[in-house]
Specification:
The structure holds two protein chains of two kinds. Chain A is an all-alpha fold. Helices cover 77% and strands 0% of the residues of chain A. Chain A contains 13 helices and no strands. Classes of the chains: A mainly alpha, B mainly alpha.
Chain lengths: 305, 283
């Protein structure tokens, strides 16, 4: 509990900073934001209406105060395009993004963990080198190349899987593979390095000498200690999954948060962009806090300082 | 070299003829791409700006090595020109970020106190925005119209990695005995940081810089793939990949080659980064 209070206190500047940055996003617009949002052909009455709606006719300091108060009440403003609340828009897109991101996360762990163990057990042998090469490819391949390639092979040439949109399991496969590929490579690398280190520890040698089966040795004795670095990267991973989904969702017409961000950029719907950016930042901060807490709960060696 | 430069001499071993295999592979691929991007006009006689609508979506041939795009433009020239844009832009971004991170990081690491607190909070705040989201949003809002603007936007979050790393290293190195002895001998702060602590940073910095090159090239391409960032008048890999996506059936070669070069470049920098990391960890 004390941990949480201290942690929340230390988070305060970061959260305030994130709100501040997303507030100033709209002030970065070169020229008059209202002109850009509505276009030159709009009537002065409309412009004035939008300006006072966004509060842009007030001094910056008052706008900032208002923005802070609104954000604290989890009110992210209104979309310019359809006047809907940004919060509702985000919530309506969230399930699709979570479906994709969570399945990518689970699949990545399921693939990366056995491969990481395999590589560390056969360190410097052919299988390890192949897996390392594979992870180098995974880290270097851009999702916006992999995605179209997969579509070309599996949808256009082989006619096996649907090209886009959300629906059956079949629709999930291609975006899932595209999103997980680099993640698998990353998790594999981290786990392999940590397993290699763990496997040379004395207690592993003791367990081996006592006749523990290989499976138990690797998956229980070694993995339970070697998996901690994976936990610490979880917040980074969740963040990159959420941003990675902008490209992947756009590639596959997946109706999630990423597509929402892309559409709002194209429509110059700045309050919506602002809302999405702040929302994702708050999610990342929360995940980071939770992983720190989980880390401390699981590993008694780590004490929060 | 004088003995006072001892840590420097150990680090500078990179100038010896031996280089790890991975670095050799990475440098070779990059060298070929670089040569191609500088001399492509001699290699292929196709004018990159010449539209030939009769030649739309031509498949790879001896005339057009990598085929043509929807306007009949030569894809090979486009890709090689894109390499110029991508590589020079990313080099500029990485250099600016490195210098900024080096300066702020050593300031925070050496002096600690409120400078450190301020910097770390700024870094944590910038890092709260996941991945390249902040860059994406700022580039979209600014509607970057020049390369300079784009470079500045890409620098927005890039320097934090260096600053964090340099801060940690300086914190660690300033407690070392040789730095303390230098202090006892009356070395000034500037001398301590530049002559005694600085050389210890070369290894980690070069590792980070090569990974950052890979990252920056990827981010820049992702932005131009989304149609944000690099102004449309510049041919980039990202924009070629984007137009290739729309013509997957007629001309898969558009996506294929543009992505291949992006992949190879990113991979080379990752290889060099890996190699350098092993190299410096073993010395």
């Amino acid at each position: 509990m004390i941990f949480f209070i201290r942690r929340l206190f230390s988070l305060l500047p970061v959260v305030l900073g994130a709100i501040l940055i997303s507030f100033f996003l709209i002030h970065l617009i070169p020229g008059d934001p209202v002109d850009i949002m509505l276009g030159d052909s709009s009537s002065p009455v409309d412009k004035q209406a939008l300006r006072s709606e966004l509060g842009l006719d007030q001094p910056v300091w008052e706008q900032l105060q208002k923005y802070f108060l609104q954000t604290l009440q989890l009110d992210f403003g209104k979309s310019i395009l359809n006047k809907k609340s940004v919060g509702d828009e985000i919530l309506s897109r969230l399930p699709a993004t979570f479906e994709l991101a969570f399945s990518a996360l689970i699949i990545s762990f399921l693939v990366a963990v056995p491969l990481g163990i395999l590589a560390s057990v056969y360190k410097d042998q052919a299988i390890d080198r192949c897996l390392l090469l594979f992870s180098l490819f995974g880290q270097s391949i851009p999702s916006f190349w992999l995605g179209p390639l997969l579509i070309w092979i599996f949808s256009l040439q082989l006619n096996l899987l649907p090209v886009s949109e959300r629906g059956s399991i079949g629709h999930l496969i291609l975006p899932l593979v595209t999103l997980s590929f680099s993640l698998i490579a990353l998790l594999f690398r981290i786990l392999r390095a940590s397993m290699v280190e763990t496997l040379s520890a004395d207690y592993i040698r003791v367990a081996r000498a006592k006749g523990v089966s290989s499976f138990q040795l690797y998956f229980v004795h070694a993995l339970s200690n070697a998996a901690f670095p994976l936990l610490t990267t979880l917040s980074m991973v969740v963040g990159s999954l959420l941003t990675g989904s902008v490209i992947v969702e756009m590639l596959f017409d997946w109706p999630g948060l990423g597509t929402l961000i892309f559409e709002s950029i194209q429509n110059r719907d700045y309050p919506l962009i602002q809302g999405c950016v702040l929302f994702l930042a708050l999610i990342t901060i929360s995940v980071q806090t939770l992983t720190d807490w989980g880390y401390q709960q699981l590993d008694p060696k780590v004490k929060f300082q | 070299m004088k003995s006072s430069f001892l840590p420097f001499r150990v680090q500078v071993g990179i100038t010896t003829p031996y280089l790890p295999f991975r670095i050799q592979v990475g440098i070779s691929i990059l060298f070929l791409i670089l040569i191609g991007s500088v001399f492509y006009s001699f290699l292929s006689e196709q004018d990159p700006q010449k539209m030939e609508l009769s030649q739309r979506f031509a498949s790879p041939s001896t005339q057009h090595w990598m085929g043509t795009d929807q306007n009949g433009l030569d894809v090979f020239s486009h890709i090689m020109h894109g390499a110029q844009v991508s590589l020079s832009l990313s080099t500029a971004v990485v250099l600016i970020c490195l210098l900024l991170g080096l300066f702020l990081g050593s300031l925070a690491g050496y002096y600690g106190g409120w400078v450190d607190l301020l910097l770390m909070n700024l870094i944590n705040t910038l890092n709260a925005f996941p991945g390249f989201l902040l860059i994406l949003a700022v580039a979209a809002v600014l509607q970057t119209t020049s390369l300079l603007q784009l470079i500045l936007v890409l620098c927005l979050t890039g320097w934090t990695g260096y600053a964090r790393m340099v801060r940690g290293e300086v914190l660690h190195l300033k407690e070392k005995e040789y730095v303390q002895s230098a202090e006892a001998l009356g070395a000034s702060t500037l001398r301590k940081v530049i002559v005694h602590i600085g050389p210890g940073l070369i290894g980690p910095l070069s590792v980070q810089a090569s990974f950052a090159m890979a990252m920056t090239i990827m981010t820049e391409s992702a932005l131009s793939f989304l149609g944000i960032g690099v102004p449309p008048s510049y041919p980039t890999w990202g924009s070629l990949l984007n137009s290739g996506r729309h013509y997957m059936l007629e001309a898969p070669h558009l996506s294929l080659f543009a992505g291949l070069f992006l992949f190879l470049t990113v991979m080379s920098f990752n290889l060099i980064g890996d190699g350098l990391r092993d190299f410096f960890n073993h010395t």
